[in-house]
Amino acid sequence: MSQFGMQMPGGGGSRGPTPDVYTALMCVGTVCMIAAVALLWFAGSKVAPGGMPLNVQDPDRIELPR
Fold first, then answer.
1. Cβ(30)–Cβ(22) under 8 Å?
2. String of DSSP letters for 42-62
3. pLDDT digits (tens, 9 = 90+) for 26-55
């Protein structure tokens, strides 16, 4: 049949790989993780010394905001 240029019905060109459910769940999980880290950063900046969440408080003198 190929000598006449005929093709089988439904034999369209193959498409590339498409995202599946697991890819969507991974993207949703990544967005949620970034949001959680941002919220913890903002909450940590309120109680950390100097407003920098990566600073460690002195265990003998812990101060909380009023």
1. no
2. HHHHHHSGGG-TTSPPPTTS-
3. 999 999 999 999 999 999 898 888 888 888
